[in-house]
């Protein structure tokens, strides 16, 4: 069930939520592992999603202790493979329609991604008809303002501040040191995420969270403990804005399943 909160601003994750980058991550990683007779399963990948780059690499390689790759070696090979693919990565269904709708109705939007700034630029350069609509309100994992990586709430709070929202210090939602007005301001935000650490980060930021997981991740089951999303969708095409106090799609917008 959707939250009954009245949403005033929206923050998007990017990888696997807005763009089909998870396919690139999987293919490039498995190309590297195949040279050593190994393969990354979705059970392994689920534990990587949403983590900062080096933490994700360390977690991956921990499953393959016999492979003679350091974290730096793996990241160098992965970066080369990914850089060749980013100019061709595509938007996921429902993204362009939702972004355009929110902008048309004056709803403030931002991006909070664990992606390095250099990678963000490579991934989005050919998709500026959507990403330019954020008007620079983008916080990347390598930015000084990003703070700790997900599942900590820092990057979502930084994105809210980029929109001019007064959300208080980088503590978990409702923690000591966050005033009542600041908690109320956090509660006016809605986060879209595809990864479990991102869901945790959004909830710890005191915001509502819509989880849009990959079908492969969803098949592993919902997290049984910890922070839970307020709503789970299979695609952003299923999002109903008025359930969150946002303006509804027009008839024309509702008919646009692909953009």
From TrEMBL:
Q: Name one GO molecular function term.
A: phosphatase activity
Give the start-end ranges of region Disordered.
Answer: 239-259
- Residue spans with biased composition (Polar residues)? 249-259
Q: What is this protein called?
A: HAD-like domain-containing protein
Q: Which InterPro entries match?
A: HAD-like_sf, HAD_sf, PGP-like_dom2
Query: What are the leading ranks of the lineage?
Result: Eukaryota, Fungi, Dikarya, Basidiomycota, Agaricomycotina
